[in-house]
Amino acid sequence: MAFFETDGKVGSLLEEYGKELGLKGISLEELIRSHRALRNMSKVFNDERRNAINKAYEDAYNKALNNMWVKLDDLRKMSVQEMLELLRDD
Questions:
Q1: CA separation for the pair 35, 17 (Å, rounded)
Q2: What's the total number of domains in the chain?
Q3: 90: Cα within 13 Å, side-chain hemisphere
Q4: How many CB atoms lie within 10 A of CB 41?
């Protein structure tokens, strides 16, 4: 299939976009194929990102639920005895 076989405005836009990419030209089919590939990569990235956020949320929730977080300011105010009591496993 020849480049720029689409006439009119679409053909002009394809020609201009191809030049921006450093190509002699780009066909409408190539543009669509490229767009599909980018959409698929974006979906994979978004799925991975969503999974990482969900895991971070679950980890933070579980740590908070299990009282494993101590504020640094609170820790500074504690005596050694209070720290030992905090660490004691009952």
A1: 13
A2: 1
A3: 3
A4: 10
> Which residue ranges of the chain lie beneath pLDDT 50?
1-2, 4
DSSP state of 48: H
8: left (phi over 0), alpha (psi -120 to 50) or beta: left
Residue 1: inside a domain, yes or no?
no
Domain assignment present for residue 67? The answer is yes
In this predicted structure, what is the pLDDT of residue 68?
Answer: 65
| Amino acid letter for position 62 | N
Rounded to whole angstroms, the Cα distance separating 85 from 90 reads 9
Provide the whole-model pTM.
0.54
DSSP 15-71: HHHHHHTTSS---HHHHHHHHHHHHHHHHHHHHHHHHHHHHHHHHHHHHHHTT----
